[in-house]
Amino acid sequence: MNQEIWKNRTLLIVDDRPDNLNILISYLEKYQFRIQVAKSGHEAINRLEVMYDRPEKRLPDLIIMDVMMPGMDGIKTCKEIKSKAEFADIPVIFLTALHNSKDKLKGFEAGGVDYITKPLHNQEVMARIKTHLTLRLQKEALELKALELEKAKLKTDAINDQLEQAIQEANSWAIEALNANDAKSQFLANMSHEIRTPMNGIIGMTHLLLGAELTEDQRSHVITIRNSGESLLHIINDILDLSKIEAGKLQLENISFDLRSTVGDVMKVLAYNALEKQLELNGIVHHDVPVVINGDPVRLRQIMMNLLGNAIKFTQKGEVCLDARVHQESEKNIWLIFKVTDTGIGIPEDKIESLFQNFSQVDASVTRKFGGTGLGLAISKQLAEMMDGEIGVNSKLGKGSEFWFTARFEIQADIQCRIPFPESFKNKKILIFDKLPNRRAVITEYLKLWQIEWDESEDSFDAYMKLVNGVQERAPYDICFWSVPQADKDIQLFVDTICQNTSLIHTTYVAISPQYMNIDNKLSQKKPFRFITLPCPITYHSLLNCFSKAFRTTKEQINTSKAITQDDNGILNVLVAEDNKVNQIIIQGILENHYHYHVHIVNNGREAITALQKKDFDLVFMDIQMPDVDGISATKLIRNPLTEVKKPDIPIIAMTAHTIPEEEKECMDAGMNAFVSKPINLDELKTAINQCV
Ligand code: ADP
Q1: Mean pLDDT of 357-374
Q2: How far apart are CA 304 and CA 339, in angstroms?
Q3: What is the pLDDT of residues 14-68, one digit of tens each?
Q4: Count of alpha carbons within 13 angstroms of residue 98, beta-carbon side
Q5: Nearest to 449 by CA among 566, 610, 326, 340
Q6: Alpha carbon separation from 629 to 108, 606, 619, 623, 624 (Å, rounded)
Q7: Looking at residue 479, what is its pLDDT?
Q8: Which residue's CA is minimally distant from atom 11 of ligand 1?
């Protein structure tokens, strides 16, 4: 065994006989023990007390005690030692004569741990001493371990307590945070509503004031109030939306709508902002996008408005374009991808990642040029994700940006998704002369949708030659779309060139021009040449209207025989009562596109009666099954003079999905004039209309 472990271990030898002491010391010498000697029991106890009183309180590791001593013998001394708590722990080995087994027993009873028999033998002495010292060392080590364990346990308990407390605090914070978040959303919703109500009053009043006679100064002040009010309202709406989205309270609608009309509305709203900066603004909807899709048109419009609004805001010169096309398709769903491109300031690469976070702006400096809250993109991202889509951007600093997003919509396989283009518009020769590819694309995607062919030209000379060749080949163009350059003298040049060649008189020239140019007057002086204008940005409805105008040119194309009480333009005012949104879009499309009627839609019989009491209509299309007041009851009420509609004898055409003879009879009995079944067949519709008007 390693001798080092005994070094400095203290042994107390208690013996009155010097020969014994000397022998023991001689055995122990080489082990570097610290040896203390006491010649009697009393001395031994005194020595222990002295050792204990020293600051280091270092007591012997082992006591070797002779049993036979004068005065207090070893057994008594051991008892005395064991009776004191501070010494009780020290192991005592007795020295006794081999034969004295009584002593041995007494010694154990007194608390001794072992015996060394006399006469002493080196090996026995050392074996016993080492054994007990080793036990002592192991006991010490165990005690130390136990102490460490106790300490570690205390530490763990303390940490557990802390953790427990932290969990409790975290839980109560989480509850507080949830309550606070709910309260925040509720507060924001209430506040926004409270602020919005007076804001609407303020803005409404500015509109009234602007209609009154004002000095130039007053007008400019009112416009400033209106503009500030509108931007404040915009910010409030953004904050409200964000708080609603964060509180999970924003629900998307799922209704049928016509994407082309939605894009058209967005174009109309933003046209003025684009015009102010003389930017080209176009909205292309690719021809393979279905006419009717199901989704939330209001929230879709919001994303488009945000992206297009930004594109216009951050572009000084050039073009802003929205492009909507099919991205992916399944049996019941269609994913569309919308891209908004601009030729504006672009975005630095390192800023792109954070763009879609709340309140993030590329230029957050106090001196920033462009207003805004940094919420538009964050809201757009959340909305796109709610529509099962994604949002992203590609941008080049100084060159422009392309923001894109995808969204999922439902499609209905069983409904007619393509509104047919009027037969009379087909087989016409169309020429599109425009330098701008995106503006040509707006028109050509509609022509593809309606399956109409066309020629294109980017250059004025080429366009002119195409027109001339058409005449020479006895196949003149029916319509020439022509984009009006912004400088006035260019208009003059093109118009003069055309008008000098009387053979080109058979074509209708459609001038695509920004509304502010007001060129109608100039062009109308060019009679007998026919110039009409198509305002940009071009929308689905403005293009349809333009076709209608163009083909109402010649007398034979206006079917005056059909007119009853037509308005000034020879067009019927038609009321359609129909509760299904898809059917509304389809019947409106057919009546507007085929018959050029003015169509007013209501959702049930009650609304139909109210409309007929207020306004002069010429014809009613009445669905049979409707909520609230159905078609049969509504017809009976219309025919009843007490209901006081403007024309109680107005022709009413029933629309129904059932084609059972009893129902047709019921309709006729109620006072209806004709009957069409759904889905609507164009020939059947024509017959019904002819029957009535
Ligand atoms: P806002 O426009 O109200 O500041 P947004 O969330 O809509 O907030 O846009 C955040 C930031 O993204 C804008 O402040 C601008 O720095 C940058 N950004 C957005 N759109 C464009 C764009 N078309 N061209 C350049 N920067 C843009």
Answers
A1: 64
A2: 9
A3: 999 998 889 998 888 888 889 999 999 999 999 999 999 998 888 999 999 999 8
A4: 5
A5: 326
A6: 112, 5, 19, 11, 10
A7: 92
A8: 361
Cis? peptide before 537, omega within 30° of 0: yes
What phi, psi does 249 have (nearest 5°)? -100, 0
What single DSSP character describes residue 8? T
Could you tell me the CA-to-CA distances from 8 to 58, 123, 130, 132 in Å, in that order? 11, 21, 14, 16
Q: How far apart are CA 595 and CA 1, in angstroms?
A: 116
Q: Answer whether 34's CB lies under 8 Å from 13's CB.
A: no
Query: Ligand 1: which atom is nearest the Cα of residue 400?
Result: 24
- Residue with CA closest to ligand 1 atom 23: 311
Spell out the residues 6+ positions from residue 265 whose beta carbon is closer than 8 angstroms to its own: 301, 539
Q: Where are the beta strands (DSSP E) in 297-437?
A: 319-329, 333-342, 391-396, 400-410, 430-433
Give the model confidence (pLDDT) of 519-576 as tens digits: 666 666 666 788 888 888 898 888 887 887 777 643 333 333 233 333 334 478 999 9
pTM across the whole model: 0.58
> Which is nearest to 302 in space by CA: 378, 373, 248?
378
Q: In what order do the strands lie in the sheet with 430-433?
A: 455-457, 430-433, 479-483, 508-514, 530-536
For the stretch 578-633, pLDDT in tens is 988 767 877 887 787 777 788 899 999 999 999 999 998 999 999 988 888 899 99
Pairing assessment for the beta strands 479-483 and 530-536 based on DSSP bridges:
unpaired
What is the C-alpha separation between 565 and 572, in angstroms, rounded?
Answer: 7
Integer distance in angstroms from the first to the last C-alpha of the chain?
A: 125
| CB crowding 590-600: b at 16 or more within 10 Å, else e | bbbbbbbbbbb
E-only strand ranges, 474-630: 479-483, 508-514, 530-536, 573-577, 598-602, 619-623
For residue 11, list its beta bridge partners.
Answer: 35, 62
Which residue CA neighbors atom 21 of ligand 1 most closely? 310
Given pLDDT bands bounded at 50, 70 and 90, which one contains residue 154?
A: very high
What is the 267 CA–ligand 1 centroid distance (Å)? 19
Cβ(38)–Cβ(47) below 8 Å:
yes
Considering only CA atoms, which residue is closest to atom 3 of ligand 1? 372
| CA distance linking residue 576 with residue 655, whole number of Å | 10
Alpha helices in 402-558 (DSSP H): 437-449, 460-472, 488-499, 520-524, 540-551
Q: Please give the average per-residue pLDDT across 633-648, as a whole number.
A: 88
> Which residue has tokens 């209901």?
643
Band (pLDDT 50/70/90 cuts) for residue 506 is confident
DSSP state of 355: T
Ligand 1: residues within 6 Å at CB? 306, 310-311, 314, 342, 344-345, 347, 355, 360-363, 372-378, 401
Residue nearest (by alpha carbon) to ligand 1 atom 2: 372
Q: Kindly give, in sequence order, each residue whose CB lies less than 8 Å from that of residue 620, ignoring residues fewer than 6 positions away.
A: 574, 575, 576, 577, 608, 612, 638, 650, 651, 652, 653
% helix / strand / coil in the chain, to the nearest 5?
50, 20, 30
pLDDT > 90? residue 353: no
How many angstroms separate the Cα of 340 from the Cα of each of 87, 284, 324, 421, 506? Answer: 92, 10, 9, 28, 39
Q: Which residue has the tokens 């021009």?
A: 513
Q: Specify the 3-state DSSP secondary structure of 692.
A: helix
Whether 592 and 268 have beta carbons less than 8 Å apart is answered as no
pLDDT for position 205:
78
**Alpha-carbon gap, residue 326 to 231, rounded angstroms:** 34
